[in-house]
Amino acid sequence: MTQPVDSSTPGDAVRRVVIAEDEALIRMDLAEMLGEEGYDVVGQASDGQRAIELARELRPDLVILDVKMPVLDGIAAAETIAGERIAPVVILTAFSQRDLVARARDAGAMAYLVKPFQRGDLVPAIEMAVSRYAEITVLEREVSDLQESLATRKSVDRAKSVLQDKLGLSEPDAFRWIQKTAMDLRLSMKQVADGVVEHGVAGLGDGAGGPATPS
Predict the structure, then answer these.
(1) Distance CA 132, CA 136 (A)
(2) Measured between alpha carbons, how far is 203 from 38 in angstroms, rounded to an integer?
(3) Angle at which helices 146-167 and 119-142 pack, to 10 degrees?
(4) How many Cβ atoms sit within 10 Å of the Cβ of residue 193?
(5) Alpha carbon 105 to chain centroid, angstroms
(6) Minimal CA–CA distance to 148: which of 106, 177, 190?
(7) What gap in Å lies between CA 135 and CA 8, rounded to an integer?
(8) pLDDT grade for 209, boundaries at 50, 70 and 90
(9) What is the pTM of this model?
(10) What percent of the chain clears pLDDT 90, i.e. is strictly above it?
(11) Using CA atoms, how far apart are residues 211 and 141, in angstroms rounded to an integer?
(12) Cis peptide before 116 (omega within 30 of 0)
């Protein structure tokens, strides 16, 4: 089994991005936007197969893929890149292709952008993808069995929703709350997540100094 690759970027290091889009003008505009937002576009491709090759070679922090491309489409490329745990994937889709979003998620894409997108849509989609990928990486390191890993992810997702509602946390902060509380209480993340869903935040107050408090 291929070991997960940590997608986090230490300190203030620039995130390295590979983009794949068969329309040259859109690809150039995307590369320019990314550069202006502080990302480093390290590779560009016009088809899905080349995107996979660049991802394997360059090991970027993120891959952005258009859905419809020659040789290999973006969903198939996303499935390979996600399956090999190379990097998180953001899918580009036209508004009329939104029915493909579910397929893209099943293939392992972490987020998507609907074309034509604005500059303000770009960074949130990227950071959501990177955050979700990092969460999955942490969970897979904790749980080696695939079925148990899927069950843990579902439990953590439910618990995150509770914490976002009850404590007003962002999705990444809710995940960190679960992670830190699990460490403090010496429990698995699934145990903490199940406790949050079943009993609420107060239900974790006993043992090992109580639950972590959000910063």
Answers:
(1) 6
(2) 42
(3) 130
(4) 26
(5) 10
(6) 190
(7) 10
(8) very low
(9) 0.65
(10) 38
(11) 22
(12) yes
